Amino acid sequence: MEKQVKEKNELWEWTKALLIAFAIAAVIRYFLFTPIAVDGESMMPTLEDGDRMIVNKIGYKIGEPKRFDIVVFHAPEQKNYIKRVIGLPGDTLEYKDDQLYINGEPIDEPYLDAYKAQITEGTLTEDFTLNDIDVSLDSNTIPEGYIFVMGDNRRYSKDSRHIGLVDQKEIIGNTSLIFWPFSDIKIVK
């Protein structure tokens, strides 16, 4: 009889431990961090199709997106996109002769240097201003609560040039850690 009670207690302890572990895992995944897979080539060469990354969901709950952060957000097509933050609220933005200008100042994008070196014809990024993309803007300025995002593979990226400005409420989080494939584990910038 005593052995039976001991076995029931042990079973109950294991059950409690597993339930607590699942609850903790669910909280972490839902509120703090979640994995995501890169789908497509729009962020090449920085991210490859099939890379698995960890999304930090709490970073923007306590802070704001920063220029050149890689973010994951809900896109209009009911998909999650991974893109790079280029423009922030209050910024004016223009691309001319493959050069990014923010608030009239040229901005370096060192993460594009390898791609630009491979181009033999034309530019990596075609010329545009914010008003070319969204004629409803009062000026060439990103409004409060929105960001402008682009993929690093500029010729083959569906980004703010096509889907418009991204509402910051749609941002799931930022990401910089590739955890799979194992041979490619790294922090990207």
Automatic annotation (TrEMBL):
UniProt keyword Hydrolase present: yes
Catalysed reactions, as listed in the record: Cleavage of hydrophobic, N-terminal signal or leader sequences from secreted and periplasmic proteins
Major localization class: membrane
Gene3D superfamilies the UniProt entry points to: Umud Fragment, subunit A
Keyword Transmembrane (UniProt): yes
Entries under PROSITE patterns matching the protein: SPASE_I_1 (PS00501), SPASE_I_2 (PS00760), SPASE_I_3 (PS00761)
TM annotation in the entry: 17-38
SUPFAM superfamilies to which the protein is assigned, alphabetical: LexA/Signal peptidase (SSF51306)
EC number, as in UniProt: 3.4.21.89
Limits of the Peptidase S26 domain: 11-180
Keyword terms, alphabetized: Hydrolase, Membrane, Protease, Transmembrane, Transmembrane helix
Membrane topology recorded in Swiss-Prot or TrEMBL: Single-pass type II membrane protein
Family, as annotated: Belongs to the peptidase S26 family.
Protein name as catalogued: Signal peptidase I
